[in-house]
Amino acid sequence: MAVRRGLNSASSVLDEYPRQLWLLVIGMLISATGGSMIWPFLTIYVRQRLDLPMATVGLLLGLQSAAAIATTLVAGPVADRLGRKGVMLLSLFSSAALYVIMSRAGTLSLWVVLMAASGALNPLFRVGSDAMVADLVPPDRRAGAYAIIRVGNNLGIAIGPAVGGFVASVSYAWAFSAGALASAVTGLLVLALVRETLPTAGDMPARTHMGAGYGRLVRDRGFLSFCAISALAVIPSALMMVLLPVYAKEEFGVVESQYGLIMATNAAMVVLFQYTVTRSSERHSPWLVMALGALLYALGVGSVALGSSFAGFLISMIIMTGGELLLVPAGTTTAANFSPADMRGRYMGFYGLTWRVGIGIGPVLGGLLNDQIAPTAVWYAGAAFGLLATVGFLLLGRLVREGARDR
After folding, report:
1. What is the CA radius of gyration of the chain?
2. H/E/C letters for each residue in 82-129?
3. Going by C-beta distance under 8 Å and a sequence separation of 6 or more, which residues neighbour residue 169?
């Protein structure tokens, strides 16, 4: 009986969303599996291969984020004019080529070029897919749709690091090859099976026009404030994902295969609990949900300073992942609900910049704190940013509610 109820529940979820959403989920799963065999260990690989100080590694990651910011500002209007599918394909096939080159790169100058190119091209897939989900799914079901997309992405991240940690300990070249293959396969899937969802002129309100730039967006003070607070919230997550593998290995001897299991735990929690948590949290104010998520980010990242073993770092990741389950779908849904139909690519792309800004600032700041003060200073700083974001979400939510009552 319980099995039948479970099958009926799964069937109802499948029927609730369009077929193309599930194609995107499959694509996310494949690309995330290959990509996450590489990126959790990229800081270790670059630091060891080029013998660089941590601050320099952080600057390389900052360059990657700066390139992503510049490209995403262009990608939004392109996705709104020419379509979602094209930017997704450009990202996937170019990522495959970059992984192949990275496996052979042995100089700092070449890595500067590769990190800039990676930052410029990789985020385009997310810009296109986030806008496509908003095209496909009505506002009242978007939180669930974005949660499902995250489940597919994180199922890949559950598999990738667990396998990639062992593969990388044998040969990083094999890990890069797996990432290239996954990106190429996802690109072929999108090319063959995914249809374009760009709204036509007939679908738009009479006052909208696809050629508009960012004028309305930059005048949307509520949305810009939301993005600024979201960027603060990303910083602790970026520190955890980018600098923890180096910190754990160099300070306490936690090797790649063990860290891969920590990353796999993060992703497995998302796979198992994301949809249920999102459905439950929809009953509450998204601002309160995001504030609680940011608070758990602060607690999880701050607790790293108290850890000294695989088990301790695993607990810290579990706490932070609890925040991720709350914050990420609520944030993406809030951004989609802010966006007018004719500017979804721009709004979702701009919101995506919050991740790039956080990922750019976090590792640079963390590298400097690690080299100039102490490794533990990284985690106390991450906790402070998480607390700032918590207060910011609560205050902005209050202002938004008051503004809605005044209208």
Report:
1. 20
2. CCHHHHHHHHHHHHHHHHHHHCCCCCHHHHHHHHHHHHHHCCHHHHHH
3. 255, 256, 257
- Backbone φ and ψ for 202, nearest 5 degrees, come out as -70, -20
150 close to 32: Cβ distance less than 8 angstroms: no
Give the Cα separation of 257 and 31 in Å (integer). Answer: 21
- For residue 210, the tally of other CB atoms under 10 A from its CB is 16
**Each residue of 69-89: pLDDT tens digit?**
777 777 777 777 778 898 899
pLDDT score for 209: 44
Q: Which ranges of the chain have pLDDT less than 50?
A: 1-3, 5-10, 204-211
Three-state secondary structure string covering 45-70: HHHHHHCCCHHHHHHHHHHHHHHHHH
CA nearest to 196, candidates 92, 82, 28: 82
Cα–Cα distances in angstroms (integers) from residue 372 to residues 343, 375, 377, in the given order: 43, 9, 10
Nearest of 230, 263, 227, 224 to residue 386 by alpha carbon: 230
The secondary structure of residue 305, as a DSSP letter, is G
The pTM for the full model equals 0.67
User: Which run of H or of E encompasses 368?
Assistant: helix 344-372
Q: Rounded to an integer, what distance in angstroms lies between the CA atom of residue 316 and that of residue 303?
A: 6
Strand (E) positions, 2-142? Answer: none
* Identity of the residue numbered 243: L
User: Counting beta carbons within 10 angstroms of the beta carbon of residue 199, is it exposed (0 to 12), middle (13 to 18) or buried (19 or more)?
Assistant: middle
